[in-house]
Write the structure tokens for this entry.
Amino acid sequence: MNNGIDLEYSFNEILKSIGVSQQIAHIIWMPLPMLLVLISAVIGVLVTVWLERKISAAAQQRIGPEYAGALGVLQPIADGLKLLVKEDIIPAKADSLLFTAGPILVLVPVILSWLIVPFGQNLMISNVGIGIFLWIALSSIQPIGLLMSGYASNNKYSLLGGLRAAAQSISYEIPLALSVLAIVMMTNSLSTVDIVNQQNTAGIFSWNVWRQPIGFVIFWICALAECERLPFDLPEAEEELVAGYQTEYAGMKFALFYLGSYINLILSALLVSVLYLGGWGFPIPVETFSAFLKIPLTSPTIQVITATVGIVMTILKAYFLVFIAILLRWTTPRVRIDQLLDLGWKFLLPISLANLLLTAGLKLALPKFFGG
Amino acid sequence: MSIALTTQLICFSVLALIIVIGSLGVILLENIVYSAFLLGGVFMSVAGLYLLLNASFVAAAQVLVYVGAVNVLILFAIMLVNKKESLKPKEYLNSRKLISTLICITLLSLLVRVDLSKVWNIANPESSIGEEATVRIGEHLFSDYLLPFEVASVLLLMAMIGAIVLARRDVMSEDISTGLPVKQELIEKSNEQILIEKN
């Protein structure tokens, strides 16, 4: 198996050659990928906010942001700066400790989950063995933060929003986990790298979306519900609840919620592309190209091109999904709370269980196509 | 001492401190909501301890089940009920406190004695299986622990059916325990006036 570029190894070799011990080199290396991923996540949010503004404008036949930079690309930065210098208000009768801790508890698990997103064979923070399960576990912490901020605001709309958010994310966690389980069953591994590698044997035809069409749809619906995007944005339904759990928040604390929800959206899109759309894989496998051009896979040029194509493909697929999510947000009406819970418990849960059974059966019947 | 060992020691001390202080807070704090949030913190720190023991799957399962499900449900229940109730003072409070302190100290000394008995089979850290543990847990669950696993699932099913029966009293015409007919109307609170009428 071609291992691709291993930046950590090369970095350690360089440091060792100038006389730094192995342990020190490791400690110097560790913050670098984390910082890089954090920065790219924030830039991803800025891009998504701009896209949201522009696409919503197009959907409503407006022009959208125009004056801040060319085509308004600097608008999200202006938004961010505005939130940064706004006064940070804590309501007089709110519980200031929980009020502050809430947004942090919402944001931290989402950022931690970026640990497992692979942009290439070795281009991720850490290839942890429990991989995708870590994301499911971490995303279950978020409702605590939402409940906390809903309670601490001392406002009935906030509390209702927090309770709705918790109910929604508990209900949709189960079909989400079950559809991931079907993928894991086919791959025999929880690691995201293994999941992508299994899909990259024959280019676009070996992507999981063909093998798991039902799982793909369930996962996408549940991911939207977990991100509280529009068909499912009940926790902050502005016509009913003002702004849900965010009602009392202003300034940087509000910005944390805003950031968290967009980072979560990008993360979900990235994970859909990792689980179902072949992750960093190009629609035509790189092996075919290099065989066609008669260049060995280990040559440096091919390695650099493969890595670049991998990153570009991952981001392209993720942003395609973000685009669909934005389009959905500006074109679909909101569901009612009973419809939401009915959809989760009475439709998605049985379907995802049946999908799991079907996958297990197909895996035994056709081990060649469904992972032996 | 190597850097890795020092880091482990620091992590362990911090986690242990959070667990001890957090669980004391769960018991001693007056505000039940604070107790519930602290309980979540304690669960998270226990997950951290599992992580230090190289049991990453168990750690993630701990977070998913205890923090993500149990603790959220506890918070949910507290916030939905949210009823201020003045409790009646208990009789013989001092003697009750004395007896419970005695029992707790006896239990603690027993635990300390057990801890010092040196019968523990400490696994060699070199032989830990790490990431392989997930596969090993699955194998055990479906071979020698199959019966407990199935019994646990039946227990959960019973609990679920029980909860549904208790919640949906409208489908039962009589009470299960007493045999008396059940009131069919919804249980509602009396309507409180929120705004004070201006005279």
Remarks:
- The interface with chain B takes residues 23, 27, 98, 128-130, 133-134, 136-138, 140-141, 143-144, 147-148, 150-151, 159, 162-163, 166-167, 170, 173, 190 of chain A (CB under 8 Å).
